[in-house]
Design a protein that fits this description.
The chain is an all-alpha fold. It is built from 16 helices and no strands.
């Protein structure tokens, strides 16, 4: 690794980890908020949805601006917004103030993720590009694991506000780390900007594939994992037990990332992503049908393994579908369109659970969406392994 490459990778990775920590904390504090504030299932779902509306808007805005004023300034500003809103959320006094802070957090996070993956993609050597971006995404799993540990040890005894403060404070470190990173060597200020319509006129198949796959993976991930502790409580486990079991399941995310990091360079991006997407769908159905402790833990761990491995492969795959002038914009728009699914899913889970639909039905819904995304990827998606990151539009 060159020195600039190391700086970018670790600065992005640690920021990604802290972001994931705060996002994951919502899934745990939702259990506590439902008890403390008397939230209905639909209100709890709206907290997740408000966060994800912000992420969708942020993805559009962040990618667009990164192609126009540079990757580095957007990289810094997004984390600043996210960190400030995250810390403020620890002092929320009720549902509406928490909803506002979660929206602002989502705005910062949604803008950051496509910009960070684009920046790392453009610094990485071609032969290690896919693996590097997947390994960057693995920091998300570390953040989720940290959130599960904080929740398990802090929330029952000290309350959810202390847990949120602990999760927000390390972002200060990430801000300092990012100040020293260089601008992407691929980014060049341009007098004439590539029009957005080129996403469809020149890259129609790539754009359609990415939008569908992003929708499938965000719909399933946020619908399943934001509600996971609550699902376990509804299946008869105590809050503490549900936190413990989610921590165990979350540990399976890391080997999922590492497997995907290996396979994207051996099988290719498309094959790896399709396999992990399909297996996520199978495990979603199996988890929805499980009731005993062993069945829930095994299917939940495999669900984590395949779903997060698919995320890693998708982040490696997405920027490689576009040339430099459209790379951050294309990645941001794919993420933003996909996150429409993440806006819908948490609310749907709350809505269906309030109507006493079975979890077999709810998780079967995720299976259908994931398999549909797999089919679109296999039919019209292209393989990007070994392709050069070009500057032509």
């Amino acid at each position: 690794m060159s020195a600039p490459y190391k700086k970018v990778f670790w600065a992005a990775g640690f920021g990604w980890m802290f972001d994931a920590m705060d996002v994951a904390l919502l899934s745990f504090i939702m259990v506590a908020l439902r008890q403390e504030w008397g939230l209905s299932g639909e209100e709890a779902g709206l907290l997740g949805t408000g966060n994800l509306v912000g992420m969708a808007l942020g993805a559009f805005i962040g990618g667009f601006l990164a192609d126009r004023i540079g990757r580095k300034p957007i990289f810094l500003l997004t984390l600043l917004l996210f960190g400030a809103a995250s810390l403020a959320s620890a002092f929320a006094t009720g549902f509406l103030s928490m909803l506002l802070f979660r929206f602002l957090m989502g705005l910062g996070l949604g803008a950051e993720l496509p910009v960070a993956s684009t920046l790392v993609n453009e610094f990485a050597p071609p032969e290690k590009r896919g693996r590097t971006v997947v390994l960057l995404e693995s920091f998300w799993a570390v953040g989720w694991i940290a959130a599960a540990v904080i929740s398990y040890f802090i929330i029952p005894d000290y309350g959810w506000r202390i847990a949120v403060i602990i999760g927000a404070l390390p972002i200060v470190y990430a801000l300092f780390a990012r100040k020293s990173i260089p601008e992407s060597p691929k980014f060049q200020p341009r007098a004439e900007r590539v029009p957005l319509k080129k996403l469809w006129t020149a890259h129609q198949k790539e754009t359609l594939t990415l939008w569908v796959v992003w929708f499938a993976i965000t719909f399933s991930y946020y619908g399943m994992f934001l509600w996971m502790p609550s699902v376990l409580v509804d299946k008869g486990f105590t809050m503490i037990k549900s936190f413990q079991y989610v921590l165990i399941m979350t540990l399976a995310q890391l080997p999922g990332y590492f497997a995907a990091a290996y396979l994207v360079e051996k099988w290719g991006r498309k094959s790896t992503l399709a396999t992990f997407l399909f297996m996520t769908g199978i495990m979603a159905y199996a988890f929805g049908q499980s009731s005993g402790t062993t069945g829930l833990l095994v299917t939940g761990a495999l669900l984590s393994f395949f779903n997060l491995g698919a995320w890693g492969a998708l982040y490696a795959y997405t920027p490689e579908n576009y040339p430099t002038p459209l790379r951050a914009t294309g990645s941001g728009f794919a993420s933003g369109v996909g996150r429409i699914g993440s806006i819908i899913a948490p609310y749907l889970v709350g809505y269906f659970s309030a109507l006493h639909y079975s979890y077999t039905f709810i998780f079967g819904m995720f299976t259908v969406v994931l398999i549909a995304g797999t089919i679109v990827l296999l039919v019209i998606g292209k393989e990007t392994k070994g392709t050069e990151v070009t500057s032509a539009s």
